[in-house]
Amino acid sequence: MKTILPNQTIGIIGGGQLGRMMALAAKEAGFKIAVLDPTENSPCGQVADIQIVAPYNDETALQELADVSDVITYEFENIDYEGLQQLCETAYVPQGAELVRITQNRMNEKAEIAASGAPVANYITAQNFEELQSKIEEIGYPCIVKTAFGGYDGKGQVKLDGPEELHQAASLFEHSVCIAEAFVPFEKEISVIIQRNAAGESFCLPIAENIHKNHILHESIVPARVHQEVLEKAEEAATQIANHLALVGTLAVEMFVLEDGNIIINELAPRPHNSGHYSIEACNVSQFHQHVRAVCGWPLREPKLWAPSIMVNVLGEHVEPLMKVINDFPDWSVHLYGKAEAKVKRKMGHVTIMTDNIESTLKEIDSTAIWSD
Ligand code: AMP
Question: 0.70 cut: is pTM over it?
């Protein structure tokens, strides 16, 4: 395991908010940051020492990043797999390319989760609509058909309540091959963020309960309001998956919690996750600090939660109303990512609130009407 030290340069592929928060954490310790992103002054570009402005799959730009960096990481999974694979030959990429290959494709992802022994919903794979038609009875209804590639925030998926709705899934195949999985009547959604270094040392962050609106994460509540046994089961499953994948870096494991306390793994993200932003204020080590430690070959720190917390996402339409009341809530930690345009539904920032009373803080958040849409 190679150790990367302050004053050396961490190269980040992707210049969004995750890269920005990774860079800010790394810069505290004195690392330098180089970032590759197609846009000038991206959220991460604004805080980086070196900006390389080019598409993620531009070979020359990737090589330029490799030339100025002592270690390379990434902030999202939809980067070019072949490009990353090539980079592994010429640069130090401790996370490797395999995890990106797996998580870019729901077919591979489901197969790997199942192979790790962690529970997944019953599913089938289909290369085309005819194959879906012929196999769907294996899982029955209700079910969800999802494109294997490129879906996010609920895009690229259709819920089917019966065979009469099957035709609704046909257009998904214009984009990609698909999987179909049994609909899970979950009680709660939670996520476990697990981080591991090349020496095999790993820790999970305190587990978040996630509340979505319009398929976009709205709030994370930490610790998740589930029984201790559920938390233990969730950590165990995440550790099983991380070990199976020989994880280096960060893996977010999204899960459903059923009424009987059983869990089912939904999907993986091989990077810091929106549901872990609370850890910046609420933990002794944030997901971004820990990620930097993991990819730089440092020993990991055991995460501790200072106080129960709520993280609320700030989308484009929430920025203005939030600014109006910001002075009324001195306890709110406000983060904005430096994005130029506050487009509706675009993630512009988040707020973290540490509290000793989750329920009353949830009411306080609602009372502002910022998030009443
Ligand atoms: P995904 O893009 O797979 O994270 O799905 C987005 C959201 O759709 C999830 O956060 C769930 O709320 C819902 N969802 C996805 N898959 C299922 C499923 N098999 N059963 C029930 N709800 C699901």
Answer: yes
